[in-house]
Amino acid sequence: MSDLERYLNAATRDNTRRSYSAAVEHFEVNWGGFLPATSDSVARYLVAHAGVLAVNTLKLRLSALAQWHISQGFPDPTKAPVVRKVLKGIRAVHPLQEKQAEPLQLIHLERVVASLQAEAQDASEQQDQPRLLRARRDTALILLGFWRGFRSDELCRLQIEHVQATPGAGISLYLARSKSDRDNLGKTYQTPALLRLCPVQAYGEWLSASALVRGPVFRGIDRWGNLGEEGLHPNSVIPLLRQALQRAGIAAEQYTSHSLRRGFATWAHRSGWDLKSLMSYVGWRDMKSAMRYVEATPFTGMTLASQPLL
After folding, report:
1. Is 216 helix (H, G, I), strand (E, B) or coil?
2. Helix (H, G, I), strand (E, B) or coil at 108
3. What is the pLDDT of residues 7-34, one digit of tens each?
4. Of 258, 277, 282, 22, nearest in space to 178 by CA
5. How far apart are CA 148 and CA 14, in angstroms?
6. Between 280 and 32, whose confidence is greater?
7. Where do the domains of the chain lie, and which CATH numbers do they carry?
8. Which one of 2, 25, 114, 186 has the fewest beta carbons within 10 angstroms of its own beta carbon?
């Protein structure tokens, strides 16, 4: 790979690159389209998947096709009037409400953490190291994901060398890149220690149990309790969270990794945080993005007075 290609690849995030590659493959292999494409074939591709794929998914497919044509030096067929008009028509005929992850309410966070702590206690008494490690890891991942409002890919990219935790005080987490860090400048996130549901304590207990000193914070654990060398894949966070919730007796089908982020945003909004403070803490740049995460339904569960405050 030439230096030019290396820098061009670095400018595109890994998740975006994978999504674009899958989208081009879907057009060419699954649907049977030809590249370079014509505006007519792209329009027919949209029609073939109208009502089957969400409009946002179709827009991502168009972006991928556009990027492929531009990078290969071909005219971009997705900008043709017929393509734009077909997409507009699909949006009008198939107005689907955007699906959002169920926010993890604080009462459910408390319940799943209590369940994981009970698992850890039982595993310690039974000298079941694999089960103890999973309970400690999952507790730390869920609490950090909630109180910091991290995305799954951000949790999976955390490195021990970039985390400074002070018991009873707080935790500092540095991410070299994230979705909200468009210029790849890196950003440090701070979270204080809490009296209950404390992410700092959970992180310390995970490191103590795992004896990790460097590399990815969150890793896979095999049946014998061996830790993987690589960090967890972001796609593994959803089943990890759902399994923990199910073991705690919570119906988990509507929860995804975004439930942690939405849960914190909803809690903060109901606790009286102004939108500007919430956007700054989580890392949103525009109000529209923030409001998509804030759950507007009436609060049920723990009262604000009983909640740990940041």
Report:
1. strand
2. helix
3. 555 555 566 778 888 899 999 999 999 9
4. 282
5. 22
6. 32
7. 3-93 (1.10.150.130), 106-306 (1.10.443.10)
8. 2
